[in-house]
Amino acid sequence: MEGIEVVVGRIGKPHGIRGEVTVDVRSDEPDRRFADGARLRAQAPRDAAAVPAYLTVARTRWHQGVLLVAFEEAGDRNSAETLRGTVLHVTLDPEETPEDPEEFYDHQLVGLAVHDLDGTVIGTVTGLVHGGAQDLLAVRATDGRSTLVPFVSALVPEVDVAGRRVVVADRPGLVAPLPEDD
């Protein structure tokens, strides 16, 4: 099976004169994704000058809560400026898992059967919606409706990737239809 490409960040403005840039991190594992020597696929913004196909992390540091990254391919402020807006990607092995056992990659959840607390299949996970306050599981109910379930432990008490199932503490209107919708 091929790897799965995910976005891990977007390059912002240059910082200082030695080629460092700010990075808007889009990963829960920035220390892992931006480790020294990491090779990231670079996708330039549509209206930008050409950037290298890949950027190699030379060094990183945190400054006032912002990740600063120096890439081997950009040694000064001028070359760092040309990278502004570049989206950074990594390719994950489909078998790779996050270091934290309570975290999951989106692709691991898609296709899992959704069970209620009694064990009845009530749908299938079709994706994840990343929101500001919380993530939402996108679920296709067994009757074909699309629903969103807040991905919090009170409503999703169990995720069993190996067993290909998710348990949802369902209630009317969440995945099951409201009584008047029957």
pLDDT < 50 runs, ≥5 residues: none
The percent range for strand residues is 35-45%
Q: Which range best describes the helical content: under 10%, 10-25%, 25-40%, 40-55%, 55-70% or over 70%?
A: under 10%
Structural class: mainly beta
Number of strands: 12
Strand order of the largest sheet: 1-2-5-4-3-6
Structure description:
This protein is mainly β and about 180 residues long. The protein has three helices and twelve strands, in the order E-E-H-E-E-E-H-E-H-E-E-E-E-E-E. It has helices spanning about 30-35, 75-80, 105-110, and strands at about 5-15, 20-25, 40-45, 55-65, 65-70, 85-90, 115, 120-130, 135-140, 145-150, 160, 165. The protein has a six-stranded antiparallel barrel. It has a six-stranded mixed beta sheet with strand order 10-9-8-7-12-11. The chain is elongated, with a radius of gyration of 20 Å. The N and C termini lie far apart (about 40 Å). The model has no long low-confidence stretch (mean pLDDT about 90).
Summarize the structure.
By secondary structure, this protein is mainly beta. The chain is 7% helix and 42% strand.
